[in-house]
């Protein structure tokens, strides 16, 4: 292979070439038409590739200012003055190559670079037109539109139905009971007055009667179904099927001699359905004046949605001439665990959403590919509106937000390979099968890659405010870690803009179940759910998927381990899936730790499935336990002569690994910044990130 010359042409994005024969008319042709007069200074153009630090797998080239004359100037003037700064024009640099072998030879043209013409920099003076040319193609589209928020109709994204079985919601309320009761010759059935002294949780959905008087006269011996069903002196009405615990403890005193009390709860609806009555417990003791007797009774029972709960007591033993009372230290604690009706929501596969985002950005279909997302078909995405079952629900997101979620969860990179926009693990963008040898280099400088180093790590999900009880139980939250590095003050954020909190999803479900349709602050939030891989056939919804709760039986440390979900998506598990990148950021620190600092919720969740290492959400992480290092945080800067075909090699494969030799020792490096002259091939300034295979201690004896 032998290089001869380079030529230029101006091409529209549709791959039709602009040309002029008479400097009056602008023509277009599907056949390449090279400029007769290349840009001024074209021999000094350097093709520069720089790795994008955020996306890791994406290269970008810097803009170049070029001056055009004659036919090039005419084409640019014609486009600008007729179409303005949005005129569609691309500068393509082609390289003429000579191919030969023992039997054949000939010339062909290979693409060296493709740059968009930036007409916002258009400058016309005399016979010269000056413009900047900037990186084009997918890279330019992504750079220009990565932050654009696009709106996707979920119903148009081949959605699947996910069955949202309820998460148990906890509430509690504490009451003070203080009342004297005369001792009568007949049993007394009486609802006890109480004063609420505190509550937390989801009780705002429960109808509470804060002060209750006598249910019946002292002389009445029975409480009937009728008077319970019509009474307004109930304790509360269940907003959902609930598990209720009532605990009464304190002390009793009196002058009766022998005193006995039995506590009851009765449940039923107000439409004359049968009342269910259960005994909570019996208090029976010999009382002496001025002496207090401690007691404690507790009962757990189930209540159907819409049913009311009555709490009352009855004397079981008595003395006609005395009294007894509950002392000031007597309290009642009501704990309610609610289970709301099952609902369904439409969700989309992450790989589908990724493809649609890239399609929006590039105006091209079928150009996105992700083997990684395809392997996680049990991870699906939805919106707050869809969870609330709002008609026409949409997902609103940008590429940047989608990438930040995927990177937080899986540790990914984004790049171009073989004409496709790829989202894969970061290691995918380090191609150890494509080695380019730079030979002997000069002017080697070794320095720390401070961009890769941090002393504070934030990982997890957005901060969301919950009620106190259920908020403590949420585990998909923000976590923060520190590390041993003290010389560099920098923070690495692996926070996801998408949410995975099952309690947030549950609260939205309830909004959709029982409240009038209205906007909520979470409607546009994007949620991630881990479902079961295999569908089942629902009698009403058809093919559907259940939520994955396969890790629940191995969980501990939280209030409820049976009904929560998304345990696969916890911050610590996300951290461990980022292990290869995080380990790479710490050179020679295998015995040091990422130290857990804080989380914005307080729960010591532990998941310990068989045949796997237990995951402790609030514990430190030994750096040496993070596997799969993909680089050292060390930069090599040097001068080297690059291969003539380097630009072609880098097109669609930014992960090329370079080798170089200095003082007889060969090292490996990952491309961070490489350049190539358009005509000559003089030594260039190159920057490589150290490959993990390098033994950097060999550089101790290095000197020029």
Q: How would you explain this protein's 3D organization?
A:
- The protein is mainly β and 704 residues long.
- The chain folds into four domains: 2-145, no CATH class; 156-166 and 343-625, no CATH class; 169-339, Viral head domain of polysaccharide receptor-binding protein-like (Jelly Rolls, Sandwich); 634-701, no CATH class.
- Helix content is 14%, strand content 42%.
- The chain has twelve helices and 48 strands.
- Strands 4, 6, 32, 33, 45, 46, 47 and 48 form an eight-stranded mixed beta sheet that branches. Strands 13, 14, 16, 19, 22, 24 and 25 form a seven-stranded antiparallel beta sheet that branches. A six-stranded mixed beta sheet has the order 37-28-26-12-39-38.
- The chain is elongated and about 115 Å long.
The number of distinct helices, counting runs of at least 4 residues, comes to 12
Task: Tell me the domain tally.
Answer: 4
* Count of individual beta strands: 48
Radius of gyration: 36 Å
The amount of beta strand, in percent, is 35-45%
Distance between the termini: 34 Å
Largest sheet: 8 strands, mixed
Mean pLDDT: 84
The residue fraction in helices comes out at 10-25%
Rough outline = elongated
Outline the low-pLDDT stretches: 203-207, 210-221
What structural category do the secondary elements indicate? mainly beta
Short descriptors:
704 residues, mainly beta, Jelly Rolls, 4 domains, eight-stranded mixed sheet, seven-stranded antiparallel sheet, 48 strands, 42% strand, elongated
